[in-house]
Amino acid sequence: MLRRLGYYALAITLIFFALRDPNGAARVVKATFGFLMTIADGLSRFASAF
Predict the structure, then answer these.
(1) What average pLDDT does this structure show over 1-12?
(2) What is the top-level taxon of the source organism (predicted)?
(3) Which of 1, 34, 36, 46 gets the highest tally of CB atoms within 10 A of its CB?
(4) How far apart are CA 2 and CA 13, in angstroms?
(5) Which residues does 7 contact at the CB level (< 8 Å), separation at least 6?
């Protein structure tokens, strides 16, 4: 639960910085989404190993 909230806080922070810099917003959001999906994939693989 706390780990999930941490990921949400990280995503919100990155999106906030992206909105402050409109030119890089799309790139930052895209990278953030890819990063979060990579983490989710890793966690699902780790959980399925047990």
Answers:
(1) 83
(2) Bacteria
(3) 36
(4) 16
(5) 36, 39
Separation CA 19–CA 38 (nearest Å): 23
Q: What is the pLDDT of residue 47?
A: 83
Q: At a CB cut-off of 8 Å and minimum separation 6, what does 8 contact?
A: none
State the residue range of the domain holding 27: 2-48
Tell whether pTM > 0.70.
no
Q: What is the model's pLDDT at position 24?
A: 72
Alpha-carbon distance of 38 to 10, in angstroms, equals 14
Per-residue pLDDT of 19-37, as tens digits, reads 777 677 778 778 888 888 8
d(CA 49, CA 37): 18
